[in-house]
């Protein structure tokens, strides 16, 4: 196929960054929970999916997309708090595979519950009217809604960074991740810190699910595909590193996009090829800490 | 002390009674099962379809309509009082899973016939099993390969359209109306490949220019990295050959990218269930083919009767294209059973070959050499306005009448004469 212009390559690069933004948004929640709690949350995809369904439900009872942007993270965050308090907390200190298996099972339960409540068939999810259509970004037309997703991801990242780096509560969370024992000795209730971190992580997952809904519609299995891709992102970025997740997410997006341009059949494989290469050169990913998994 | 003994005694007596009665039930039950089997063992139709996964919406419709065909057969008295039963299995859109489930249906469930499948690739796996076991399989999903001598057997029937017929009908319509420069976005498996081959073949008659074919894996959720390239090719027509959720997402995202402004999107097949699941926006203005649309009820009494029966069974819902195939596939087999007066495979094969039927969409028959159902193809367009009910989603643009000239010839398929 002929016709490789500069504009096309630039547009393709941009499409990759936009796709990367979705990966980032999904993966930071995963990375946050792992980095702080060393819980590999296999139910992350399920929270993402439930986020989309909560949005769907709220709109069906008369809400709009903007209300959902606030309400969905709150609802999913609260359910995340409940899950942590009731089923995950008893497993702390038991080895990394316990919560992994638990959340794996939990994801099945959640998907099945949604299938029972909403049916196995998917639902359409309309893009909010003001964000419909494509706009000229200089090198070609790009969907307005995808630009909005990039913006929303940036806002979430900024808010998370400010919270972790600039507030005293963020300081406690970071300290708790380094050395929970010392923090406990200093009189801080570490279990409450973990509870909140889990809640924030799941809230971001729900938010990501809501943002993904207008891109691809809503279906009970929607969390499955992205979970596999997000694990690649967190592994490439370094397990538990939020900065790493951001860098790796964008990189994965661009790699997928560029492979799509030259060899579309290879796009899906390229993600895993990237992971293999990165792990050969840097076994802990970009910014991973050694020993977190042990 | 004495009290204790009495108590122990009473327990053991009770236990004796329970054991004895359980034993009696056990002794009687195999006999009873044998008796039932001899007298009224149901005619079992195995029905493997991908209930979970990207084609789930369509598969559920297949089951619903298949159940309707069985219910009608039973209400009409069955085969001299012998009732039919649909044994549904989820093949998860996976050839390995489908082969295992089919083998299980044949070996364990002892099904008399197999009807089903919803994938060009998976149906070949099912066909391999049924072919080897000598069980009739009526496929209700598109495939060209299943007609070819290498995969065909005398037990293989194909109720669905095949890609050659579908792309032929859509191509003949679109290439005269929308332009000659065509780009393709294709699901990278048998269905997509066969559709593109069909479009290119019919395209020769119209001198179309093939600008390029971009292939995506089955189950893609993001097409944003493929669409800029397709747009840059500046085609008159973008032909999107994928199915189910892939089709829903591809059309939705193509709409978001503004592709419809300058390019006509066509699809070999527009699935009713997918159109409903994706909403009117995504499918608006897209032209494609289908085997059935409930709206042809003004034209055919059989369609009207099928719609009515389906409505009655499913709270006023109307049947979809793939649902209709489930109905047609099951009903054809059951009518052949009635005609043959038996469930014996060879007699039913002969009865199916002799059928001239009109169950839901006008006249049809199975071509002798490859058992392909010769039938009409509808060319339809998705609407977003003036919808009378939730099923009023397409407008029929033209109908290609049933004719063997639209099929590949028996020789081309490798059959003798």
Write up this protein.
The complex is a heterodimer of chains A (294) and B (417). With 294 residues, chain A is mainly alpha-helical. Chain A has a domain at 29-223. Chain A has helices at 6-37, 44-60, 65-88, 97-118, 144-166, 168-178, 180-185, 190-216, 222-237, 242-262, 267-281; strands at residues 134-136, 141-143. The longest helix of chain A is centred in the N-terminal third of the chain and has 32 residues, at 6-37. Chain B is an alpha/beta fold. Chain B has helices at residues 2-40, 56-75, 95-107, 122-133, 163-177, 190-206, 227-232, 244-256, 272-278, 280-283, 301-313, 321-340, 345-354, and strands at residues 43-49, 84-90, 113-116, 136-139, 156-158, 181-187, 209-216, 237-241, 264-269, 287-290, 356-357, 364-366, 373-374, 377-382, 394-400. In chain B, the strands form three sheets. A seven-stranded mixed β-sheet of chain B has the order 7-6-8-9-10-14-15, with helices on both faces. The longest helix of chain B is centred in the first third of the chain and has 39 residues, at 2-40. Chain B starts with a helix and ends in a 17-residue tail after the last strand. Chain A binds chain B through residues 1, 3, 5, 7-8, 11-12, 15-16, 18-19, 22, 120-124, 126-127, 132-134, 140-143, 145-146, 215-217, 219, 221-222, 225-226, 256-257, 260-261, 264-265, 267-268, and chain B through 51-53, 56-57, 60, 188, 211-212, 214-217, 219-222, 224-229, 231-233, 245, 248-249, 252-253, 256-258, 273, 277-279, 281-282.
């Amino acid at each position: 196929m002929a016709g490789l212009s500069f504009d096309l390559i630039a547009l393709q690069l941009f499409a990759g960054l936009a796709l990367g933004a979705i990966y980032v948004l999904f993966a930071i929640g995963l990375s946050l929970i792992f980095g702080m709690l060393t819980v590999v949350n296999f139910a992350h995809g399920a929270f993402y999916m439930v986020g989309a369904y909560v949005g769907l439900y709220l709109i069906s009872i008369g809400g709009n997309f903007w209300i959902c942007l606030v309400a969905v993270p709150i609802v999913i965050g609260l359910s995340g708090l409940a899950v942590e308090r009731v089923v995950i907390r008893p497993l702390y200190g038991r080895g990394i595979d316990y919560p992994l298996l638990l959340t794996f099972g939990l994801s099945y339960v959640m998907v099945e519950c949604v299938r029972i409540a909403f049916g196995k068939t998917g639902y359409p999810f309309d893009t909010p009217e003001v964000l419909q259509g494509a706009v000229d970004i200089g090198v070609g037309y790009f969907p307005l809604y995808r630009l909005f997703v990039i913006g929303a991801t940036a806002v979430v990242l900024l808010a998370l960074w400010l919270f972790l780096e600039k507030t005293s509560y963020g300081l406690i969370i970071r300290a708790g991740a380094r050395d929970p024992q010392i923090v406990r000795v200093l009189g801080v209730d570490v279990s409450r810190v973990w509870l909140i971190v889990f809640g924030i992580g799941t809230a971001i997952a729900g938010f990501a699910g809501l943002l993904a809904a207008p891109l691809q519609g809503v279906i009970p299995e929607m969390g499955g595909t992205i979970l596999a891709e997000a694990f690649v992102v967190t592994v490439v970025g370094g397990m538990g590193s939020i900065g790493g997740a951001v860098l790796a997410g964008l990189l994965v997006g661009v790699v997928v996009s560029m492979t799509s341009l030259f060899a579309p059949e290879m796009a899906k494989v390229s993600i895993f090829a990237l992971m293999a290469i990165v792990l050969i050169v840097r076994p802990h990913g970009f910014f991973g800490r050694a020993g977190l998994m042990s | 002390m004495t009290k204790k003994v009495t108590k122990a005694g009473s327990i053991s007596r009770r236990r004796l009674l329970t054991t004895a009665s359980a034993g009696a039930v056990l002794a009687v039950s195999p006999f009873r099962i044998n008796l039932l089997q001899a007298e009224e063992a149901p005619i079992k139709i195995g029905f493997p379809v991908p209930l979970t996964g990207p084609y789930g919406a369509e598969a559920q419709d297949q089951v619903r309509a298949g159940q309707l065909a069985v219910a009608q057969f039973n209400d009409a008295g069955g085969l001299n009082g012998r009732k039919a039963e649909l044994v549904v299995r989820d093949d998860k859109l996976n050839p390995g899973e489908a082969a295992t489930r089919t083998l299980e249906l044949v070996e364990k469930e002892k099904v008399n016939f197999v009807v089903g499948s919803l994938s060009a690739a998976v149906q070949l796996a099912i066909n391999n099993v049924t072919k080897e076991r000598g069980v009739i399989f009526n496929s209700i999903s598109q495939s060209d390969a299943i007609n070819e001598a290498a995969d065909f057997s005398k037990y293989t029937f194909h109720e669905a359209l095949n890609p050659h017929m579908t792309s032929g009908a859509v191509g003949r319509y679109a290439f005269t109306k929308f332009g000659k420069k065509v780009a393709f976005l294709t699901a990278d498996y048998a269905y997509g490949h066969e559709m593109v081959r069909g479009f290119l073949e019919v395209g020769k008659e119209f001198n179309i220019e093939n600008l390029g074919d971009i292939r995506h894996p089955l189950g893609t959720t993001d097409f944003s990295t493929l669409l800029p390239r397709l747009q840059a090719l500046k085609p008159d027509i973008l032909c999107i050959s994928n199915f189910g959720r892939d089709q829903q997402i591809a059309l939705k995202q193509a709409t978001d990218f503004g592709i419809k402004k300058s390019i006509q999107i066509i699809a070999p097949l527009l699935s009713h269930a997918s159109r409903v699941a994706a909403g009117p926006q995504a499918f608006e203005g897209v032209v494609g083919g289908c085997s059935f649309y409930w709206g042809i009820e003004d034209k055919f009494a059989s369609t009207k009767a099928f719609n009515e029966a389906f409505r009655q069974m499913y709270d006023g819902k109307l049947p979809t294209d793939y649902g209709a195939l489930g109905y047609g596939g099951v009903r054809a087999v059951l009518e052949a059973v009635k005609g043959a007066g038996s469930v014996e495979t060879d007699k039913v094969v002969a009865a199916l070959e002799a059928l001239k039927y009109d169950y839901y969409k006008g006249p049809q028959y199975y071509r002798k050499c490859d058992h392909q159902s010769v039938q009409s193809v509808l060319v339809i367009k998705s609407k977003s306005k003036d919808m009378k009910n939730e099923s009023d989603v397409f407008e029929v643009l033209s109908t290609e009448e049933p004719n063997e000239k639209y099929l590949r010839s028996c020789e081309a398929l490798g059959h003798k004469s």
